[in-house]
Amino acid sequence: MMSDFFLALLLALIQGLTEFLPVSSSAHLLFPSLLFGAKDFGIVFDISVHAGTLAAVIYYFKKEINGLIQAWLPWTKNRNKENFSLGLYLLIGTLPIVVVGLLASDLVESRSANINSIAWANLIFAGLLFAAFKFSSQSKSLTELTLFTALIIGCFQALAVFPGASRSGMAITGALIIGLNLKDTSRFAFMLSIPTILGALTLMLAKGAYSIALSDMFIILTGFIGSAFIAFITIKGFLHFVAKIGMTPFVLYRVALGIVLLLI
Questions:
Q1: Domains of the chain: total
Q2: Does the pTM exceed 0.85?
Q3: Cα 115 from Cα 31, distance rounded (Å)
Q4: Which of 27, 42, 186, 255 is the most buried (most CB within 10 A)?
């Protein structure tokens, strides 16, 4: 049985690496317990690793976020219309997963997913991502988004309540389907994670009747710092290389993962 510190470090690495890649962080976070019988640290640890990834994406996009805030301040004169519209699209894109998350929160928190369901989710949604990547026109930029297309992306992202679907993977799939170019698709999916993760954290905090023991603080800090550090590196690397590598490597990984899980 691995030590609590090593397990916390492993889970932080998994969360930081997979939250922003189209490979499903929720599915990977279940693997240690499903495959090796590792302990579940519970909701407090979940909050810490999600807070870590949230801190990473906010820090990476701090300039863009500042622009959005300035555009939305009620006393701003000569507000930037593109930033105002982008902020609106991010809010609209977040609504579906908020609604689905509230309705299905008990199912998500029950951690009822099993290896077979995760395997099939990987195979099905990997196929959908591959089709979107191969057949999308990828001709539109962020400035060409509309309220309707932002809502479509949000509806795809909402499918991430199924372990194995991948929040970023579904957001990227939806953005590709509506014709957004791959670079802007990735940036929008990553920025869409900010209100989404923030909403998930709020829900976990609101529902969690818990206390934090002093002995748990080291594990919690390990989760937060580890996930934040790895997530920042992941975001930077993905946005730098995505135009060169495309979605095919992630699709192949998810197909291979799904097949291996079915054979276990």
A1: 1
A2: yes
A3: 8
A4: 27
Beta bridge partners of 180: 140
- Give the span between the Cα atoms of 8 and 13, in whole angstroms: 9
Alpha carbon dihedral 240, 242, 243, 249, in 10-degree steps, equals: 140
The region that residue 243 occupies, defined by phi over 0 for left and psi between -120 and 50 for alpha, beta otherwise, is: alpha
DSSP string for residues in 159-177: GGGSTTS-HHHHHHHHHHH
pLDDT digits (tens, 9 = 90+) for 104-162: 766 555 555 678 888 899 999 999 999 999 999 999 999 999 999 999 999 999 998 88
Q: What is the DSSP letter of 40?
A: P
152/168 Cα distance (integer angstroms): 14
Burial group, residue 13, by CB count within 10 angstroms (0-12, 13-18, 19+): middle
Q: Domain range for residue 41?
A: 4-263
